[in-house]
């Protein structure tokens, strides 16, 4: 008998002609997620098994697998010979000291000499005898369930619970996007949502060093690190927009600072996206959340992006819904750490909330657009994560 972890996937994405492609990505994502851990990876029909890992690493393995998109459920199980006595030995390890239980059996191998109903009844009886009245059977609302899955080659899997996986599609099956990652709550959630649809999510941050400090940078690196546990992307791009902000501050009307800076960010993001082969931009914008996210504000920044689509998965979400997701994915505590965002540098007292495009263009015409873009692009840094 040995301890294993069963990984089940959502069948849906494995159907059809692309099966091999999806499966290949999924397997390599699973293996990538377990980097640094020693284990054996076994492929069975309809599931994968993780075997031969150190028992004390069980929680770590589960934590990592729970973040791999495409995983439907996970169980810690015992793999044994498929005779009833061996199954019973494994089942003993799953018993609680008191309460009610039921046995659920499933035969992957239909040649097994007993039906699943017979297996459940026999094994249930053995457990009742063994626990001498401390446990009783309740098939409708048991306090725990012993599950038996008869496999091929005289083997069986015995386990208790199903742990919910991340679901979604394997990362790498739906193209590549570039996430504009700030230090806030929203953008990591937006990136997570697109990765869940199978997109490889690269991250780009704009900073205003020396106006923003090292802690601000470390915070964004940590957010990228949290995201990387879902996406597998182990780097963060960063671009300095200090010169852009100084130029806007010097030459343009102050209420336009955020509007103009956003347009620079989007232009720079599109240029960088094309360099790295990203097919879209992703932002954490949500309609009406702040002054710059009115439909006029969104239109103003959107209009500088020449060819790529800008995906805004949070556009219709309430702040509370975004916060709930951010707590679930584990980015919230980092996102709320205090820091200076580049946008708070030179922040105007009264930003325009409904910028008119002709006014924006007039302010922008006061700037050396190409020069500023080129300087900013030159500041590009690649930060490795881990
Ligand atoms: P977030 O919580 O993601 O910071 P927010 O509510 O603070 O969002 P804004 O500051 O208006 O909203 O930013 C809108 C979007 O623009 C962000 O979700 C992010 O995608 C992008 N963005 C803003 N600031 C930066 C930055 N410094 N670097 C990269 N992207 C940024
Ligand atoms: Mg922000």
Question: What does this 3D model show about the protein?
Answer:
This protein is an alpha/beta fold and 386 residues long. Helix 6 links the parallel strand 11 and strand 12. It has 13 helices and 15 strands. The two termini are 36 Å apart. Strands 1, 2, 3, 4, 5, 6, 7, 8 and 9 form a nine-stranded mixed beta sheet that branches. The chain has a six-stranded mixed beta sheet with strand order 14-13-10-11-12-15, with helices on both faces. The longest helix is centred in the C-terminal third of the chain and has 20 residues. The protein is 38% helix and 22% strand. The protein binds adenosine-5'-triphosphate and magnesium ion. The site of adenosine-5'-triphosphate has 19 residues, from helix 5 and strand 11.
Helices and strands in order:
Blueprint: E1 2-9, H1 19-33, E2 40-44, E3 47-51, H2 58-65, E4 71-81, H3 84-92, E5 99-107, H4 116-131, E6 135-137, E7 144-150, E8 155-159, E9 163-164, E10 176-180, H5 186-196, E11 200-207, H6 214-231, E12 235-240, H7 242-251, H8 257-276, E13 280-282, H9 295-302, E14 310-311, H10 319-329, H11 332-335, H12 357-364, H13 369-378, E15 381-384
Parallel strand pairs: 5-6, 5-7, 10-11, 10-13, 11-12, 13-14
Antiparallel strand pairs: 1-3, 1-4, 2-3, 4-8, 4-9, 7-8, 12-15
Bound molecules: adenosine-5'-triphosphate and magnesium ion (MG).
Magnesium ion is lined by residues 182, 184, 341.
Give, in order, the helices and strands.
EHEEHEHEHEEEEEHEHEHHEHEHHHHE
Overall strand count: 15
What is the makeup of the main sheet?
A: 9 strands, mixed
Number of helices: 13
Q: Residue share in helices?
A: 25-40%
Gyration radius, to the nearest Å? 27 Å
Ranges where pLDDT stays below 50 over 5 or more residues in a row are none
Structural class: alpha/beta
Bound molecule kinds, no repeats: adenosine-5'-triphosphate, magnesium ion
Q: How much beta, percentage-wise?
A: 15-25%
Average pLDDT confidence is 94
Could you tell me how far the N terminus lies from the C terminus, measured between alpha carbons in angstroms? 36 Å
Shape: elongated
């Amino acid at each position: 008998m040995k301890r294993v972890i069963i990984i089940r996937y959502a069948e849906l994405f494995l159907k059809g002609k692309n099966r091999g492609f999806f499966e290949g990505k999924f397997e390599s994502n699973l293996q990538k997620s377990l980097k640094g851990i020693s284990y054996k990876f076994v492929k069975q029909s309809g599931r994968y098994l993780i075997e031969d890992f150190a028992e004390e690493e069980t929680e770590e393995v589960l934590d990592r697998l729970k973040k791999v998109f495409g995983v439907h459920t996970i169980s810690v199980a015992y793999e044994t010979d498929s005779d009833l006595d061996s199954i019973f030995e494994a089942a003993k390890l799953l018993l609680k000291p008191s309460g009610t239980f039921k046995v659920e059996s499933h035969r992957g191998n239909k040649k097994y000499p007993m039906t699943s109903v017979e297996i459940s009844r026999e094994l249930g009886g053995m457990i009742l005898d063994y626990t001498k009245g401390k446990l009783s059977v309740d098939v409708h609302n048991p306090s725990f369930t012993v599950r038996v899955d008869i496999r091929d080659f005289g083997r069986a899997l015995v386990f208790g619970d199903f742990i919910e996986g991340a679901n979604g599609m394997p990362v790498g099956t739906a193209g590549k996007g570039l996430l504009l990652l700030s230090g806030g709550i929203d953008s990591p959630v937006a990136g997570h949502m697109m990765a869940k649809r199978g997109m490889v999510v690269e991250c780009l941050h704009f900073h205003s060093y020396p106006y923003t400090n090292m802690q601000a940078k470390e915070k964004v690196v940590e957010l990228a690190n949290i995201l990387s546990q879902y996406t597998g992307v182990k780097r963060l791009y960063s671009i300095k927009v200090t010169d852009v902000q100084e130029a806007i501050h010097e030459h343009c009307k102050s209420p336009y600072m955020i509007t103009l800076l956003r347009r620079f960010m989007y232009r720079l993001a599109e240029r960088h996206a094309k360099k790295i082969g990203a097919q879209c931009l992703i932002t954490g914008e949500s309609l009406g959340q702040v002054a710059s996210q009115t439909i006029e504000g969104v239109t103003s920044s959107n209009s500088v992006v020449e060819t790529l689509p800008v995906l805004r998965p949070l556009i219709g979400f309430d702040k509370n819904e975004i916060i709930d997701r951010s707590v679930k994915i584990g980015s919230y505590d980092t996102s709320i750490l205090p820091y200076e965002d580049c946008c708070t540098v030179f922040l105007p007292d009264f930003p325009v909330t409904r910028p008119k495009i002709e006014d924006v263009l007039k302010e922008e015409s006061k700037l050396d657009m190409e020069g500023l873009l080129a300087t900013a692009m030159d500041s590009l840094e690649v930060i490795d994560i881990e």
